[in-house]
Amino acid sequence: MKYISTRGGVPPQSFAEVVLTGLAPDGGLFVPQTLPRFSPAEIDDWRGLDYPSLVARIVTPFVGDDIPEPELQQIIARAYSTFRHRAIAPLVQSGHNEWVLELFHGPTLAFKDFALQFLGHLLDYILEQRQQKAVILGATSGDTGSAAIEGCRRCANIDIFILHPHERVSEVQRRQMTTVAAENVHNIALEGNFDDCQNLVKASFGDQSFLPEGRRLIAVNSINWARIMAQIVYYFWAALAVGGPQRKVSFSVPTGNFGDIFAGYLAHQMGLPVAQLVIATNANDILHRCISGNDHSKRPLVHSLSPSMDIMVSSNFERLLFDLYERDDVAIRQLMETFHTTGEFKLAESALAKARHLFGSACVDDELTVQTIAEEYGASDYLLDPHSAIGLAAGRRCRSDDSVPMICLATAHPAKFPEAVQRAGYPGAPPLPPHMSDLFEKAERFAVCANDRASVHRFIADHVSA
Known about the structure:
With 466 residues, this protein is an alpha/beta fold. It has a domain at 83-109 and 225-423: Rossmann fold. It contains 18 helices and 15 strands. The chain has helices at residues 15-21, 40-45, 51-63, 69-80, 113-130, 143-152, 171-178, 194-206, 225-241, 259-269, 286-293, 317-324, 329-342, 349-358, 366-380, 386-398, 418-423, 453-463, and strands spanning 3-5, 30-32, 91-95, 98-102, 134-139, 158-165, 185-190, 217-218, 249-254, 274-281, 296-297, 344-345, 359-363, 406-410, 447-449. A six-stranded mixed β-sheet has the order 3-4-14-9-10-13, sandwiched between helices. The chain has a five-stranded parallel β-sheet with strand order 8-5-6-7-15, with helices on both faces. A two-stranded antiparallel sheet has the order 1-2. Strand 5 (134-139), helix 6 and strand 6 form a beta-alpha-beta unit. The radius of gyration is 21 Å and the shape is globular. The relative contact order is 0.15.
């Protein structure tokens, strides 16, 4: 299996090199040259597999010969051994032919554990085999940071630096990052928003001269292909649980950086019968505006009750655009240059028509988010976090066929967002799971940095281990 850049300026790369590189040197994102495809009979044969076994079936073709199968199976087993539900990703029925896929049973209570537990073990294996050390640099709007730290804090070959927007993530999210007492973990509170953090990370990959000799940057944001690959699995898992592949299934996905829903698109391309993918946004609705009205233009960032989705520039959307434009890297380069220069672009009519054939979209503001949390708790004592509530509300708004199961992705535990659930009428703060009960008693450790690349680079250079 070889990987190419969406902008066409890089020779085909191996799986291991793509995992270590993250962002392609030409500024594009890596995608497989070809996707594995599975027949309905093959998918049906997976019905009795447990979650780690299903992971092995789906990711092995992407890995190819880069990791021997026994070692890959060990990496997968370790990655999912820390989840606190035997089903790993259980489904809960929320209405007629409607389901919530709970993706928050990992160690940091967010869907990003599915990819980042796997990625941490994967990186440690590859670096150990190469006798290399590396620096992880990531940006988080809340959940990626804690999941990446949890996945990498025991890695002997990695120093990890995570940028979060100062005072713009929830207290639980912040403490999950800043209370980890590991020498290789460093948290930076950037005086800016998430897009500032993400832009700084991308710029750093373009110029790594600030690093000590022999070190390289690795991305753990969803621009890293391994994260997308790992997330494909739970779409197959959920569809099998409700009657796939004999029947089509629809999904509604709370969407910020477009990585999670792009994994659903790939599942469809690989043979999973998907009727509809709903892009569920909060007030930062550039993707909804693009799909519904061909308006892909930047607007001022809105700080919402769903902070993990407070993103205006969705990096992984470029991967979908590459397919919508028939993998024309010249067209993608021009499109992204236009966006960089003007802050907007419009899709070609043929590309927009292809997107609308599979994707629906809806914008769910804070008022409807709170209303959805309150209604679900009142009707069934089921408590949603604000991001999951957006997915459920958007799925109901966009659902085109009640006979097709609609699976709404629940991306975080409600205890991570007490402000939103209390506004919905929940009495008090939702309790944290027992393994996190002492979170507010632990000392925090983080640095506040100006929104300035030189300041961040100095901090990193000063704190990389010898």
